[in-house]
Every structure is written in C-alpha cells, then in structure tokens.
Amino acid sequence: MPYLNRIEVMGNLGKDPELRYLPNQTPVSSISLAYTEKWRDKASNEQRERIEWFNVVLYGKQAETVCRYMKKGDCLWVAGKLQSRRYEHHGVEKTVYEIMAGEIQIIHTKTKTKLCPVWNICKFLSSSCNRMPALSGLYFFMGH
Question: Across residues 78-84, what is the average pLDDT?
C-alpha cells in the first residue's frame, strides 16, 4: 500500500535565520514560517486574519543559502515531509512537528538586488544539489 508524507507552505520568516553546525559539520538552520490567512467576516463585514506558524528544518546548501540571502519578513516556499520530534521540558514530555525541507524557493526578499545574481526564481532541490558540485547546489532560473 503506498503512503504519502508531503507538505507545501509559503510564508514569511518570523525572524532572521541562524546557521549552526551538527557534530559532523553539516550546516543546519531551523526557521519559523508564518502563513497568514485573510478573509472578510460576512456578519460584520470586518477584515479578519489568522496566522499559522510552521517550523522548518533545512540542511546543507539550503540552510547556508537561506541564512545568507533571507531576513525576517522575507517570503519562502517550502516543500518537504512532516516529522515529529519529542523532547522533555521541565519534566514534561512535549512533541513538536517540523517540516524537513526537500525543496525551497525564495519568493521575495528585501535585499534581492545585491545578493543574488539572477533573482526572479531561485530553486534549490536537495536531491539534486549533490549532483551539481560546480553550482554548489544552487539553481538559478531566469524569469520574466
């Protein structure tokens, strides 16, 4: 029987990303993406909104790239798998759900003109990054 674990989210970074390294020197970054849903309340005709926060974990070139080019408020699209992680906090076991990034696209950033040579769409595919060492895992697609 086939199974599927895939999630796609597009949202804004909640704070500047920070790069850290695992003991084996693999770059890693954990970011929070805010997805804002807006609608007009039919009864009051008032604008309403709800914000959902998603925890995202990036490794390797993806982590380095997001930390280099993106800041709080910038827009990022992420596709990956949802994974749970358990930890203990003050004697209480907690569970957190994280998106393990497989693909990312930088949608918009305030600093785009000085940081990225070809900006319209930057796509990073984790499964392909290791096959393209000359590009260091970065794919730049020309847009209109």
Answer: 97
pLDDT value at position 110? 81
Asked if pLDDT for residue 62 goes beyond 60, the answer is yes
Whether 66 contacts 104, CB under 8 Å: yes
* Residues 85/88/93/95 CA torsion (nearest 10 deg): -20
Mean pLDDT of the 12-24 span: 97
| Residue in this structure with the two tokens 């000085």, named with its chain if needed | 114
Beta bridge partners of 85: 96
Residue 31: which region, alpha, beta or left (left: phi > 0; alpha: psi -120 to 50)? Answer: beta
Which residue is it, tokens 């807006």?
A: 38
